[in-house]
Specification:
The protein is of the alpha/beta class. It is built from 10 helices and 5 strands, in the order αβαβααβααβαααβα. The chain has a single domain (2-22, 42-252), classed as 3-Layer(aba) Sandwich (Rossmann fold).
């Protein structure tokens, strides 16, 4: 976790982070299988911790997933959260703002979707789209971008002070890996539903998006709402790192099963 954490105020260059990194695990064979086994254990632990989070109802966890197209946001949710009770977890995807949403500040629609206490919320793309695609395509000025960075930091600080732990993950893939995944979508009839011609158009702006992500994460990784750069070329390693981070965040809450209702003698209680 520490290897991928972005320290507040640090300079950032994605070129210096290897998207093919697998840490102490070899990329094939036993290394891959060991990582998968470790992930399964973490998923089991996550299930237990989520039950305590839900039962206590006094804290919440918000997981933000960002990355280039095909970086694996959907796959992360499918695999890492596979053991989570849907009753205590909600996934939100932010699409083009509606007319009503455009009539408010850019964080208005986001705040409404923040997880309630006792819940895990997952943003599959998020409020950060409003300082990414809008910036890359010249829809907002650099001055507005900086204002929004500050507003996002204040918003996430508010969530933190209200009992929500915020964790943000940038799924880091290479341009070659993205090409491979796009080609897989094109060539596999079972995956064509995921394909959009817009993915190819946005790929032309790879360099601009890289710069936008770098400045965004440098400006908004804080002690209360940290960013993690997750090497994501290898899906199994991506899942391991995120599972480890999420379990670590829940363990830091020191969650336990809440006390039983007062006034009941469970030792003598009988049900006819």
């Amino acid at each position: 976790m520490k290897n991928y954490h972005i320290k507040p105020g640090s300079k950032l260059s994605l070129a210096h982070v290897d998207p093919d990194d697998t840490g102490d695990y070899k990329k094939t064979g036993q290394g891959k299988e060991k990582a998968k086994a470790a992930t399964e254990k973490l998923i089991g632990k996550l299930s237990e911790l989520q039950e305590h989070l839900y039962a206590n109802g006094d804290r919440a966890l918000l997981i933000v997933l960002q990355g280039m197209d095909t970086s694996g946001k959907d796959g992360t949710i499918k695999h890492v959260m596979s053991g989570v009770n849907p009753q205590g977890c909600k996934v939100v995807t932010f699409k083009t703002p509606s007319a009503e949403e455009l009539g408010h500040d850019f964080l208005w629609r986001v705040h409404q979707k923040a997880p309630a206490k006792g819940q895990i919320g997952i943003f599959n793309r998020s409020h950060y789209e409003d300082v990414l695609i809008t910036r890359v395509h010249g829809c907002i000025s650099d001055k507005v971008v900086k204002q929004r960075f500050n507003q996002i930091n204040e918003f996430e600080e508010l969530l933190s002070e209200s009992g929500t732990v915020v964790m943000k993950f940038f799924l880091h893939i290479s341009k070659d890996e993205q090409k491979k995944r796009l080609e897989e979508r094109i060539n596999n009839p079972e995956k064509r539903w995921k394909f959009s011609e817009g993915d190819i158009e946005e790929r032309k702006f790879w360099g601009s998006y890289t710069e936008a992500f770098e400045s965004m994460m440098a400006a908004t990784s804080t002690d209360r709402a940290p960013w993690y750069i997750v090497p994501a070329n290898r899906k199994w390693y991506r899942n391991l790192i995120i599972a480890e981070c999420v379990v670590g965040a829940l363990e830091s809450m020191k969650l336990k099963a809440p006390p039983a209702p007062a006034g009941i003698d469970f030792d003598t209680l009988k049900i006819e």
